[in-house]
Amino acid sequence: MAEKILIIREAIKPDETIIAQHLCQITIELGFPGSSIRQDWLEKTIQFIDYARSKLQYKGFVAEQNEKIIGSASCQILELYPMVSNQYQKGYIWGVYVEPSHRRQGVATELMEQAMTYLKEIGCTTAILHASEQGKLLYSRLGYVQSNEMVVSLI
Questions:
Q1: pLDDT tens, 59-90?
Q2: How far apart, in whole angstroms, are the C-alpha atoms of residue 55 and residue 51?
Q3: pTM of the full predicted structure?
Q4: Which of 26, 79, 91, 143 is the most buried (most CB within 10 A)?
């Protein structure tokens, strides 16, 4: 039996389709109905990645095993309002996904560590993400804590 070697690498342009597919799959796994998925989800996601790459220092990472992409994660600068201090630069991690048959094998941890390392390299002092119920245990083990973010539904 061939040994399963996990490789985490920086995503390249052709990987954007898989990253977009993973983001769409996350949405479905979170329980959103298929009918709520936009017709142009692939185009919009790739447009956003291109924008984030040019304006927000975006970087994606993919996990490969036996030359097949089995997971991905994306990260970028988070700019919701003007930052008036360079002592507090937020980074945002999003789209962390691992194919179901490869979960609970450390793949998401490896992807997260790459993303956090990159955010540190570009000067981020804080990393933020929004966790699904399934992801909370992983993120807690990596040192993430609940924040003071507050949310209200507008619908």
A1: 999 999 999 999 999 999 998 777 777 778 89
A2: 6
A3: 0.90
A4: 91
